[in-house]
Every structure is written in C-alpha cells, then in structure tokens.
From TrEMBL:
Residues 1-22 form the signal peptide. This is F5/8 type C domain-containing protein. InterPro entries: FA58C, Galactose-bd-like_sf, Ig-like_fold, Pectin_lyase_fold/virulence. Residues 11-159 form the F5/8 type C domain. It comes from Deinococcus peraridilitoris (strain DSM 19664 / LMG 22246 / CIP 109416 / KR-200). Residues 685-707 are annotated as: Disordered. Keywords: Signal. The keyword Lipid biosynthesis does not apply.
C-alpha cells in the first residue's frame, strides 16, 4: 500500500469518527482577505450551502470567530463546487487572533474519496484544540486558482472516539507558504487632559496605532457609541465642552483596523467634565468726568468705576451712542480733547462694563457741554519754505514746574550741569540720558543743529506735562538726522514737542531705486511726473525715485510693556518736518502685542516735502503696492490733526501709479479728527484704508501745478 492510499484510508476513517457530547458552535463574525462581487464572507455562516464566499487568486483566506474560546476538533465544510472538483487548504486555530497554530496542512478535499452528505458537507478532523478563531487558507482547485467555501460548521469536541489524524500531505501538485495577515493592530489612547472645569475648553484624544501591515482606520467611541473615524495618522479627535450643560463622565475608546480586517480596541480613557454654571451677575459701573462744562481748549478725563464678583474684563466708552474707546485693565479712563470752537456742542457719554461671561452693564449718562470762543485762525503762508503757521487754538506751552535742562550744539558741553542757559549740554546723547519728571523741560538753543535721534521716552501727567522745545531767539533747532530711520522718537506720554525742525540730512537720503524711470523737473527743482527712459515728448530727465524709510517724528507705543500710556496723550505743535518718507508717523499696533498710539495731537505744524517712497516695486515684480510721500501717517486711534500746513508731499516716480503720496494717510485707524488743515501741491489730501469712524472737516486743499 503506497503513502497516498494510506492517507486516503485514514481520512475516510476519520470522516466516520464520532464524538460524544458534540454540540454546534455558533459563528459570531466572519472576515475574509477579499471576495468576488456578491459573494461576501458571511455567506459561509448563513445555514445555506447554496450560497458561497468566493475569492481569487489562490492563497485567499477566511476567518470564523466564535466570540469565545471553544473546544474544537473538526470542521464540516461545504466547498464551492465540492462535488465536482478537488480543493487544497490549510486550517489554523487561535484563542486571541495573534498566536496561531496550524491543525491541517495542505488538506486535500476529494469528492471521489471523501464522501459528501446530502448538503455537500465533508468532515475534517484534527487533534482537539481550544480556539476562538479558525482560519481557512485556500490554494485553489483542480479546475482553477479560485478559492470558495459555501458553508462551515463546527461542533464542540467531547470525548474523541478513535485515533488522531496525522497532518495531510500536499495534494494535486499545490504547495508553498501562504502570506497571512492575522495579526491585529496594537493601539493605545491618550487624552490631553482628563478633567475639564472651564467653559469652551477642549480635550484632544490621540490614538497611537501601529500594525505590521499598516493601520487603515481608527474609530472613536464615546460611551460605547461610534462618533468619529480617522483614516490617516496622526489619529486624533478634538472634543470641546461649551458649558455646564456638558457636565458628566465620558468613557472614550478607539478601535483600530488593518487592511485584513483585524481589529483591536484600546483601553478606556475617562474624561470628567465639571464646568461651573455660568455667572449671571452683571458688573456694576459708574462714570464721572473731570469737567462737564468746557469753555477753553483742553481735555476732559472720563473715568469709569467698575467691579464684578468674578472680575471686569473690559470697559467700553461711548460718545453719543458710538463706541469711542475700550480699556481692558484698570484704571478705566478715556480722554476727550477739545481744541477749538469747532468742537462746540453737547456730548453724551456712557460706559459699558463686561465680565468674563459677557454679562454687561451700562452706566448712567454724563453730559459734557463744550462752548469755546471762536479763534479766527489764519493757518498758512505762501510756500512750504517760507510759511509761518499761526493760530490761537493750539495747546498752550506747558508751565514748567520742575527742572529745565538746556542743550546748545555750539557753545554747550556735556560736562556742564545743563540746568541753566549759561551751562548747557552739547549733545542729544547727553539729553537722551537724562530722566525727565512731570513738570520738567528739555530745551534746545534756537539755531542749533543736531544729527542724532532724540528719544523722548519720558512720562508726564495730565496735569503736569513735560515740555521739549526751544529757547533763545532765532530759527528753530534743527534735528537733521544722519543715521537710522527717525529724527525724533516719542515713546512716552503727556509730552509737548514745540518749535522743532526735523529733516533727513542729504547724506542720509535713501538710495535711488533700480528702475529706469526718470522724472522731469521744473526750474525750481520740483519733480512732477514720471517719464520713460528716453525722457518722453522731448523732455529732459534727470531724476529717479529715492526709496527707503525716513520719518521726521514718530510717536510709538513700543514701551507699552513697561507703561500702558506709552505713545499716548502727546502734542506736537509749532514745528516743521521736511525731506522724509513720512513727516510725522503715529504708529499702529504690531504682532508682538504693541497697541496703536492714541489720544495724540498734531497742531499748527508745517509738514512738507515728504518725497521719499517707502515701497516702489517694479510692475513686473508686483503691482499695486507702491507707497510713500506721507505727510502725516496715522495708524492710531483717537488722534487730532488741526491747523497744520502741508505742501509738496508726493513721490513722482511710482512704478505703479506714476505719482504717489498725500498729506493725511489714514490706515487701520479709527476715531481720528482732522480739521482746519491746509494742503498745497501734494499727491492728494487724504488716503484711507481699513479705517472707520474718522472725521475730516473744514480742511482746504489747493494745487498750483498740472501733471
């Protein structure tokens, strides 16, 4: 008897073997490596041998899950076309779908040798094993490489009658290993926090899932219910708890899948949400004013007194129902400045206080009546070089109640005391080093000249300002800066800058840009329009655009981290700027948290010849970004520009627009007031961008040239 004959006889013997106490084992879940259309894996457990699971090519697998560990020693299989063809397969068992044991190797199902019952089942037995999962791996049939199972039945193993069946040997010429993926993913779940006590707080769940063949998806479950799926790493879910309505205990878990359908659940992560009920108590707030009857130019300080059981987050000040100012920290104050009879009228102010839960209370109304006598202003001379700006509505020169320091670039010495006209200092460096107190003054000799930047970093008070100005007779002190971007930098508060001339030194003019454009000049040397490189229309050309940042006087809040009033409540008056990119710049906020300047005044000042561009990009590189030629550049809020004289603020070789610039450039600014200003021969009187609630009234503009 040869080996094959012996194998067939042994197989037949075990088909006839019976078990004592056998019972059908229910199949809970069926998964497979793949399936031909309309032949899903579950058809092998539907108690209908006429339906089949089919897959191709060879080495496809199907796995049955009993739901719990059972004793099993046989399988009844109805194979696809099992009555007419031979099939070869392996059978594996496992208790956890991780570690597998092969119980049948290259089992040969032959209808001619293994009898089939009336429903087409053949029984295959093996040594009794404890198993929850049974894995069938098919290697094709005697007809083709297709794998198919119509039905599978398992019975619990009682007392086995008979001998154990040896391993089957390869049959039908089919042999070789199969590439199985029977290993489920590994997965853990972590939460960014497990306790939530603040409204609108979020918890991020992060599933760390790995698999020998790759994770295809991770499902997120809340209290056992699926609520989200992530199909790519990192596998995350963010949960936001809005209010106390979300209070409770939540159990979160994840289920990770691989391409073979293997799955594994994570441990449960518990998140406890206990958000206090929202605060329904609104703040209390009252409003007061230093004066309610204004008859002379000056300021009124509005003070809001606000409190709340959980803290005040901000106070808004409203003028006639329109938001005028917001303060987020105490003291909650707002200053209204009235410069002339133009401000006459009745103003109704209220304050509105908020707490962290957005409860709000509005104060009672404070009414301020302004009745300032008319000033009959004459704000201009003939040209920018000879104009004398006179008016009677500018802020008065502060009374010096403290120490006066003197600086004389010609006859001074930094070794002097600096506290008398007979012993002045010599340099701006020495002046910058002094500590000025409220009521002090820093005065520069008329006709003197300085090349360094003056840094006005001192803080006066609303009732005791600091004066920076001139002494003696003659021309204004000149700050003709030869380095850096600014002639005078103001970062303090309650400063009055009076009677200074600030300009860029010729040696420090910005360089010409690389453009081939040229501008023609008139006999006075003033450029008017851009021409092509050959001059155009027979006109001569001898001028290119200078491009770079030069500022005469810059008010900035860059000291805000040390003093919340940085860049606020300053006055520039009776002064002049020329040959700059921006004559005066009231800076805005920046990304580092510095706020915009506010509550400053520019009064009775000549702002002329802002002729440098800040940006002049060739059209081929970028269009519509040229800028420069700013007279007064306002990026702040609640500022006043009044009784000023503007002339010749223009750049004439703009790549984008040919001409660019203007006297009042207002960008990202609000609640500014411009009145009684005069504009002569500038690019335009005003440009606006990203700004709201600004007022411009009783201004005059005049052009005496053509372009």
């Amino acid at each position: 008897m040869n080996h094959r004959t012996l194998s067939a006889l042994v197989a037949l013997f075990f088909v006839l073997t019976s078990f004592a106490g056998a019972a059908r084992i229910p199949i809970v879940t069926v998964t497979a490596s793949s399936a031909v259309r309309e032949t899903p894996a579950y058809l092998t457990a539907d108690n209908n041998p006429l339906t089949s699971w089919i897959a191709r090519p060879a080495s496809q697998w199907i796995r049955w899950d009993f739901g719990s560990v059972q004793n099993v020693a046989s399988v009844d299989l109805a194979l696809y076309n099992g009555r007419t063809q031979d099939s070869v397969f392996d059978l594996w068992v496992s208790t956890d779908a991780i570690t597998w044991k092969q119980v049948l190797r290259r089992a040969l199902a032959q209808p001619a040798k293994h009898p089939l019952d009336k429903d087409g089942f053949q029984r295959f037995t093996f040594l009794r094993e404890s198993a929850r999962y049974v894995l069938f791996v098919g290697y094709g049939s005697s007809r083709n490489n297709m794998v198919g199972v119509s039905e599978a039945r398992f019975e619990s193993a009682g007392t086995l009658i008979g001998a154990a069946l040896p391993d089957f040997i390869p049959g039908n010429g089919v042999a070789g290993p199969v590439d199985l993926d029977v290993t489920p993913p590994s997965v853990t779940l972590a939460a960014s926090k497990t306790s939530v006590t603040t409204a609108n707080d979020s918890v991020e769940l992060v599933a760390n899932a790995t698999d020998n063949r790759g994770v295809t998806k991770v499902e997120f479950y809340r209290n056992g219910t699926l609520y989200g799926t992530d199909t790519s790493a990192p596998f995350t879910s963010t949960l936001t708890y809005l209010s106390s309505a979300a209070n409770g205990t939540y159990s979160y878990s994840v289920l990770a899948y691989d391409a073979a359908g293997n799955t594994r659940s994570s441990e449960v992560v518990t998140v406890v949400v206990n958000i206090p009920a929202a605060d329904s108590s609104a703040p209390t707030v009252s409003l007061s004013a230093t004066s309610t009857n204004v008859t002379a130019a000056g300021s009124v300080l509005l003070t809001a007194t606000a409190s709340d059981n959980k803290g005040v987050t901000k106070v808004e000040f409203y003028r006639d129902g329109v938001l005028a100012h917001t303060e987020q920290v105490a003291p909650y104050e707002h200053t209204e400045t009235y410069s002339s009879d133009f401000s006459n009228g009745t103003y109704n102010f209220t304050a509105r206080a908020y707490d962290a839960d957005n409860n709000a209370t509005t104060s009672g109304t404070v009414t301020v009546i302004v009745n300032i006598a008319s000033s009959n202003v004459v704000p201009m001379g003939s040209t920018a070089d000879t104009a004398t700006v006179t008016q009677t509505a500018n802020s008065p020169i502060p009374t010096v109640t403290g120490t006066t320091y003197y600086v004389d670039s010609v006859d001074g010495s930094d070794s002097n005391s600096g506290t008398s006209t007979g012993a002045p200092w010599k340099t701006v460096t020495k002046a910058n080093a002094v500590t000025l107190l409220p009521g002090d003054a820093l005065l520069f000799k008329a006709g003197s000249s300085y090349s360094s930047m003056l840094h006005a970093k001192w803080y006066g008070t609303s009732s005791n300002r600091i004066l920076i100005g001139a002494y003696g007779n003659g021309a204004k002190p000149i700050f003709e800066f030869t380095g850096g971007e600014k002639g005078v930098l103001v970062t303090g508060a309650y400063l009055t800058i009076d009677n200074l001339l600030v300009r860029t030194a010729p040696s420090h003019y910005p360089a010409y840009d690389a453009s081939p454009e040229r501008c023609i000049n008139d006999t006075a040397g003033t450029s008017y329009w851009a021409q092509t490189a050959n001059g155009g229309n027979g006109q001569p050309y001898d001028f290119r655009q200078r491009t770079g940042w030069r500022v005469g006087i810059n008010i900035s809040a860059e000291d805000y981290a040390n003093n919340a009033n940085s860049g606020r409540f300053n006055v520039i008056q009776n002064s002049r700027t020329e040959y700059t990119t921006a004559g005066i710049h009231l800076s805005g906020a920046n990304s580092s948290g510095r706020p915009a300047t506010s509550n400053n005044q520019v009064i009775a000042t000549a702002i002329t010849k802002s002729i440098f561009a800040s940006v002049n990009t060739p059209v081929g590189v970028k269009y519509d970004d040229d800028s420069g030629g700013f007279g007064l550049l306002i990026n702040g809020h609640n500022n006043i520009a009044a009784y000023n004289y503007f002339e010749g603020n223009i750049t004439n070789c703009s790549e984008d627009y040919r001409i660019e610039g203007g006297d009042l450039e207002i960008f990202s600014a609000r609640n500014n007031f411009m009145h009684h200003n005069t504009s002569i021969n500038s690019g335009t009187f005003t440009e606006l961008g990203g700004s709201t609630n600004n007022r411009a009234e009783r201004n005059v503009t005049r052009t005496t040239c053509t372009r």
